[in-house]
Amino acid sequence: MVIVTRSEAKKQSLLKYFTGKPCSANHVAERRTVNGVCDECFRLSKRNSYQKTRQHHVEYMRNYYKQNKERLSQYNQQYYADHSVDLRNKQRLRYQQLMDWYKKYNKEYYQSHLEYFTRHNASYYANNLDYFVSYWCKNASQYNYNTAKRRAVIKQAIPKWAEFDEIQLMYDTCKIISDETQIKHNVDHVIPLQHPLVCGLHCLANLQILSETDNKRKSNKIEVS
Fold this sequence. Notes:
The protein is mainly alpha-helical. It is built from nine helices and four strands, in the order αββαααααααββα. It is 64% helix and 6% strand. The strands form two sheets. A two-stranded antiparallel ribbon has the order 1-2. It has a two-stranded antiparallel sheet with strand order 3-4.
């Protein structure tokens, strides 16, 4: 970075200049020509000032929105309509640049709010049953394929010595627990039947009863020591 004094910056009508020397706070950064304050000091000052008055700003913006809700809503709708293509392109580009972060954030958010999503999805399904029935009818072949594939995986994972009666008893017990607690439970494979590292068996030792919430949280994961 080119070394420039403040007097030279004023002569050249520069907004900022760089001396290469630390300021009183030991920051080596560009300085503002108008007052000689370094950028880092200015940034920290603004942040500290905002922190001190943050609650005031929050209350002000909340009240402002309430008082101008309709006008702001109309403005935002019109702005989006006028710039929809540009906004979508920016959103798409931002998502592509931060795709890994978004995936991680969304996964963690879903896991931490799993009980809410479980209740919400169940309620949404119950209130839109006609839609889901219609959707299933239109995509029945795909559903049948997925079901057949799942059955084939289980069939291949059943050893000859599997305890069929005990396994059936576990499924019956799972249903009883669901009925008595009014909380849906699932029979889960401790070691998943399909996993990149190891595939489990469909046998009594590899089965456990979990609430649907815990089962979704576990998903297709296993603990690897």
